[in-house]
Amino acid sequence: MSRRKTSTPSAAGAPTETRRPIVSSAHLVSPRSSELSEFEFGLIVSNNAFSRWIVHCMAAAGLRELTPLDVLVLHHVNHRARGKRLSDICFIMNVEDTHLINYSLKKLQNLGVVESSRNGKDVTYATTDAGRRHVERYREIREACLVSALNANETLNHEIGELARLLRVLSGVYDQAARAAASL
């Protein structure tokens, strides 16, 4: 998307170009940070594209009936080949509603890609051999379709890392704001 520019007169009377932010909800734009509204629009568009990507990639890997959350849960359960508790999955994925994650886990179990086991009071979840095969196929497709298309060099990889850091910082700000709004 290109940014729309408008001409406004400068103090000297000559027109200068100013940038109008690209936002989804102009009524939310704050004079203190129009960039935040622009970020939110970028987040909306990126989230939708990312969700579509992971569902299509997993479908190409052989699991066609998954939602974006199901795909993310499967990847997290597979992460580091260690059993995960429901509470740990929710914590790492920053999901407060355990029912959402639990529903995904049951769905993944029914598909035979995740299994549960009891260790005392704890129930842990791990990927099955079939689940690991689907995750590995996903990885292969991701390399071929996404990583190859990105064709990142050292500079772009550095910028992506900085963006990831900024997203983690902003997620903390949004979490804090959510707690403040919940107390109103």
Automatic annotation (TrEMBL):
Region (Disordered) location: 1-24
Descriptive protein name: Transcriptional regulator
Organism: Caldimonas caldifontis
InterPro entries registered for this protein in UniProt: HTH_MarR-typ, Trans_reg_MarR_HTH, WH-like_DNA-bd_sf, WH_DNA-bd_sf
GO molecular function terms attached to this record: DNA-binding transcription factor activity
Domain HTH marR-type: 66-131
Pfam family, one: HTH_27
Domain of life assignment: Bacteria
